[in-house]
Amino acid sequence: MVWISPEQKYRQITYTCYDASKKEHFCQPGENWGALTEKECDWVISLSKQIRPSNPTVDGKLKPDFRQVKAWGVNYSASTRWLWERLTNSVKYANNQWWNYDIYGIVDSLNLLCYEASDNQENIQDHYSKHLDNGDLYYYRKISISIQLSNPQDYEGSELKLYTNREPGKLPKGRGTMVFFPSIILHEVTPITQGKRWALVCWVSGPQFR
Questions:
Q1: What is the pTM of this model?
Q2: Opening angle at CA 150, ends 80 and 76, nearest 5
Q3: pLDDT of the chain along its 210 residues, tens only?
């Protein structure tokens, strides 16, 4: 059996982002796109006090050796409308600029995540091992979005890494930064070793890749 990785399309890049360290990557008054402000990051994190948390599964099963993190599902509502619109507008631009995938939009709940260092008996720190967001169960996922909600000085470890080469490149992680990448790219979140890291992730869906 031969495994053939999906071939990159014309102009396709590993990832694109709205980098919160750059002022021009924030939306202007009256606009609705770009990186989140610190105040907006705080607001998103505060949703964890209003929603019941869950332990995410892998293929329907709890697999702490493979993935361990606390999660909250964030649905579309009157109060979260601005967030959904910000994500939708931002990914439309990224997709039109770089990938030109046939997409529907964000059809699943947003996932608010908290990676926290702990001294648990199993000695397993919160992490997510190497995986693809697009697979048998999630064939409709085309673009993955990860938003950095924490100040990078507040934790150690918990690095998002994308693998298109043997060694992953370094991603920007200023607070409020949005990173977009094709869901067929192998990636991981390394174990957190100190502190707490908050992130918001979601997936843009569309017809199955051909």
A1: 0.91
A2: 15
A3: 334 444 555 457 899 999 999 999 999 989 999 999 999 999 999 999 999 998 888 877 788 899 999 999 999 999 999 999 999 999 999 999 999 999 999 999 999 999 999 865 557 899 999 999 998 889 999 999 999 999 999 999 999 999 988 888 889 999 999 999 999 999 999 999 999 999 999 999 999 988
Q: How many CA atoms lie within 13 A of 189 on its CB side?
A: 26
**By the 8 A CB rule, do 192 and 93 touch?**
no
Tell me the two tokens of residue 155.
């934790």
CA distances from 116 to 38, 96, 169 (A): 20, 36, 24
SS (H, E, C) 142-193: EEEEEEECCCHHHEEECCEEEECCCCCCCCCCCCCCEEEEECCCEEEECCEE
Expressed in angstroms, the distance from the first to the final Cα of the chain is 20
Coil, strand, or helix at residue 202? strand
The encoded tokens of residue 71 equal: 């999660």
The separation between CA 57 and the C-alpha centre of its own chain, rounded to angstroms, equals 16
